[in-house]
Design goal:
Blueprint lengths: L5 H6 L10 E3 L10 E5 L10 E5 L6 H8 L2 H7 L2 E6 L22 H16 L6 E6 L1 H12 L6 E5 L20 H4 L7 H9 L11 E7 L8 H14 L3 E6 L6 E6 L5 E6 L10 H7 L4
Parallel strand pairs: 3-4, 3-5, 5-6, 6-7, 7-10
Antiparallel strand pairs: 1-2, 2-4, 8-9, 9-10
Helix pairs in contact: 7-8
C-alpha cells in the first residue's frame, strides 16, 4: 500500500465502506457550500487517477452515481470517482457568474478543484490524471472546468452541454434563471471568439488545454443540438485541431463520431434522434481518459 495514507489503509479493512459513496467533510475552501461524496474502490492504484462526475440540474452526486455507473471501472483500475452536489439554483452548477468563470475566483469551479486537490494530497493521487465528466448542467461545468483550470484537468468527456462561457453574465444557470439564448443555441461565435473568451478566464496561462470529448442528441430541444457545434468550435480553436472526418454508426448505430485532427485531442458525437440527455457511456469515457 505504498503511498496510501494510514487512514485509508484502515478503511480498506472494511468492505462495507465501499458499498456506497463516502461522505467527505472539511476538504478545504468551499466558497459555495458544495457537498462531496467519493467512490473509493477496495484497492486503489498506487497513484490513482481522479474522475470528477457532475450531476444534471435537479440532481445530486448520489443520483449521478446511480446513473453513470463508473464503479465497475474504478474497481478494475483503482481510480477515484468524485460525485459532488450543489443545492443552489435548482441544483444546477453555476456556469454563469464571473466568480466561477475566473481561475481561483471563488465560485463553484473553485470548490470543485479544491476537492481534487484534497484527494491528490490524501490518497497520493496522480495530478496528471485528473478528469471531468457530466450530463447537462454537469457537461456545462465540465466545459467550464477545462477552460478555467486547464492546468488541473487532463481531459473531459460529457453529455448534452454548452461551450464554456456560453452563459457568461446570465442571471443564473438553471432553466428557470438562465438567459435562454444559450440553451436555445442562439449564442453563436467563431472558434477564435470562443477561444479568446476562454483565455480571459485564466490570464497568463501558456500551457496546453485539456483533451475534450462531447456528445449531443439531434432531437435535444432542451439544450439545443446547435450547442454541440459551438463546443467543437471552441475546443478546436483552443487545441489547434481541425475537423478531419465523420465516422458513421460509431460507437453504435445512429451515432456519428466527428474527428478532429488525429482524434486524440478532440472528438464529438452526434446521436441521431436522441433527446436530452444522451445516455452516459462509461466505457467510452474511461477509454478517452486512458484508464480502460
Amino acid at each position: 500500500m505504498k503511498g496510501i495514507s494510514s487512514t485509508l489503509a484502515a478503511l480498506l479493512c472494511s468492505s462495507t465502506t465501499y458499498a456506497a459513496l463516502t461522505q467527505v467533510a472539511n476538504w478545504g475552501e468551499n466558497p459555495t457550500s458544495l457537498d462531496m461524496q467519493v467512490y473509493l474502490p477496495a484497492k486503489l492504484a498506487e497513484k490513482p487517477a481522479i474522475i470528477l462526475a457532475l450531476h444534471y440540474c435537479g440532481g445530486t452526486g448520489p443520483a449521478y452515481y446511480q446513473m453513470a455507473k463508473y464503479d465497475t471501472y474504478a474497481d478494475a483500475q483503482g481510480f477515484i470517482v468524485v460525485y459532488p452536489s450543489t443545492k443552489k439554483d435548482s441544483n444546477c452548477w453555476d456556469v454563469a457568474s464571473q466568480k466561477t468563470l475566473t481561475n481561483n475566483g471563488g465560485g463553484d469551479s473553485t470548490g470543485l478543484v479544491n476537492m481534487v486537490k484534497y484527494l491528490i494530497e490524501k490518497y497520493n493521487a496522480d495530478p496528471a490524471k485528473v478528469y471531468a465528466t457530466g450530463s447537462s448542467s454537469g457537461c456545462m461545468m465540465t466545459n467550464v472546468l477545462l477552460a478555467v483550470y486547464p492546468d488541473v484537468f487532463a481531459a473531459g468527456s460529457c453529455y448534452s452541454g454548452v461551450a464554456a462561457g456560453c452563459l457568461a453574465g446570465s442571471p443564473g444557470s438553471s432553466p428557470q434563471s438562465a438567459d435562454p439564448l444559450c440553451a436555445s443555441g442562439q449564442n453563436v461565435k467563431t472558434g477564435e471568439q470562443w477561444a479568446e473568451q476562454v483565455k480571459a478566464m485564466y490570464p497568463g496561462f501558456t500551457g496546453s488545454y485539456p483533451r475534450m470529448q462531447t456528445f449531443h442528441g439531434t432531437a435535444d430541444h432542451f439544450v439545443e443540438y446547435k450547442n454541440l457545434a459551438e463546443q467543437l468550435k471552441e475546443w478546436s480553436a483552443l487545441l489547434g485541431a481541425e475537423f478531419t472526418k465523420n465516422v458513421t454508426n460509431t460507437p453504435q448505430s445512429g451515432y456519428t463520431q466527428m474527428v478532429y485532427g488525429d482524434g486524440t485531442k478532440l472528438v464529438g458525437y452526434s446521436a441521431a434522434n436522441v433527446g436530452h440527455t444522451v445516455p452516459v457511456h462509461p466505457q467510452l469515457d474511461v477509454a478517452w481518459f486512458g484508464l480502460g
